[in-house]
Amino acid sequence: MLTSNVSPQEAARELLARRRARSAFADFCRLVAPDEPPAEHHLLLCDSLDNIISGDLKRLLVLMPPGSAKSTYATVRFPAYFLGRKGDKGIITASYNDRLATRFGRKVRNLIRTKDYLRAFPETVLAQDSQAKGEWETTEGGFYFATGIGGGVTGRRADLAVIDDPIKGRKDADSQLIRDNAWDWYIDDFRTRLKPGGSIVVIQTRWHQDDLAGRILHDDWDGESGWAQAKDGERWYVICLPARAGANDILGRAPGEWLWTDWFSPEWWEQTERTARQKDVRTWSSLYQQTPKDEEGTFFKREWFSKRFNPGSQPKHTNKYLSSDFAVTEGDGDFTEFGICEVDSNDDLWITDWWFGQETADVWVDAELDLINRHKPLVALGESGVIRRAVSPFLLKRSRERRIYCNFEWITRTADKPAMARAIQARAAQGKVHIPNTPWGDRLLNQLMGFPAGKHDDGVDVLALMGLALDGMIGGVEPPQERKKDPLSDYIDDDDREADDSWKVA
Q1: Which letter does DSSP use for residue 436 in this model?
Q2: Of 206, 147, 139, residue with least CA distance to 179
């Protein structure tokens, strides 16, 4: 049984010892695929899947790089093994679309048909009248059903629920709508089909801090393997295997050691890293290292904001604007944020005040009005459409009640978040966006460094909205400098001032 109250180092030693012992599931894999002996990381995975069978483990999260054969073991061989061991139990599996899910289902079904499988489980036979690729049953009463994320699962109750590759690729990962839809389906449909005491296995390569794994795990999770607390209080066992090992590696690798070098040579890994980093650092840190973030930034670069300023040291002659991002759906994890942005005579943007919170609408409406009252911005910007319809009536009503007035302008969203942030990205790249040395400035900078793969990007949305409006904004105007009066000017007549033989140049 896995121990949940030991240190990470003790847990690593415990697992190292266990995976050297015989694993029943690993033995099954050797039987049905004798030409593919499990590697060290496969034995680690087999050990955890054995604990699913025994009931000692109910929640397993597997994070490995592409090509590590995690799906072969966890999504193809393990469901077949589970049905052989559990007889009349049911399995529901899901992937990012029906096609991939059905392909997994076909492989599991075909494995059950093999002679090697029947040697291990002679009683587990496919029912004659139920052998479709994505939905079939066994003569013992067990069943297997495959679906895409968002597909219907009602009418079935599973003992084992497996999700493999919930995100298709970067484009989908960067879409908040797709991430939200996948999460809603996981909570409202997938989990509700699990029988009491059933188990969940999630297998994926990381794409985004806010992907399915990111939403399950607590915000302070940072790539550790072992027991982890989920946001809802559940205990998950995490196998996180980066391509290049870091400290406290669950396989016992030394820092810098590569994964599965019997298959992928160190030279192959080194070239893969160079190729990935040539595209951008995010590709390497997310797909291969399972930590989708980059301290130096990808969309925004840390070096662009190297000259932080102390509050109060910004130019004196600026025009102030307020930009906003409203979290109109309570409880979805987003923040409502407001930023005061000052534009100087050089079109530089100085972020001088900020508010963020997850409170109810009455609190953040008053927070926005407090900023307006304090800074007197020329314009308060907000996003039109659904957000304007939800926010504007209450905001205007409260504005009249408090007698705090401002020109509210609403900007239409015309593209996805990265496209909307291009304008502010261009200014930042030229060193024209200035962030203060404050705790909220540090928080904002971290969001910028994580964008578009970061878990939170509400602050980025504030700046993106400001960026869209900047071309129409008026910068502060430096007052003309007064020329010092020449003490002898009263004694010089106008003719002398204009003469070429002025006494000043004689």
Answers
A1: B
A2: 206
Cα–Cα distance measured from residue 463 to residue 485, given in angstroms and rounded to the nearest whole number: 45
Per-residue pLDDT tens digits for 425-456? 999 999 999 999 999 999 999 899 888 877 78
Going by pLDDT thresholds of 50, 70 and 90, the confidence category of residue 418 is confident
- Which residue, chain included where needed, has tokens 């990265």? 418
Cβ within 8 Å of residue 440, ≥6 positions away: 354, 356
| Separation of alpha carbons 292 and 298, rounded Å | 11
| Nearest one of 321, 313, 324 to 343, comparing CA atoms | 321
Burial class of residue 217, CB neighbours in 10 A (0-12, 13-18, 19+) = buried
The DSSP result for 189-201, as a single string, is IIGGGEEEEEEEE
* Residue 327: both structure tokens together: 């979290």
Q: What is this structure's pTM?
A: 0.67
Q: How far apart are CA 28 and CA 51, in angstroms?
A: 15
Beta strands 59-63 and 408-411 are: unpaired
Helix, strand or coil for residue 488? coil
- What lies within 8 Å, CB to CB, of 50 at 6+ separation is 23, 24, 25
The pairs formed by 69-73 with CB atoms below 8 angstroms and a separation of 24 or more are 69/39, 69/42, 70/45, 70/203, 71/104, 71/164, 71/165, 71/203, 73/29, 73/38, 73/42, 73/45, 73/46, 73/49
> At which residue do the structure tokens 């928080």 appear?
443
Residues 45, 62 contacting (CB under 8 angstroms): yes
Number of H helices, E strands in the chain: 19, 15
CA dist., res. 290 & res. 7, Å (int): 22
What would the two tokens of residue 248 be? 């406290």
Between CA 94 and CA 147 the distance in angstroms is 5
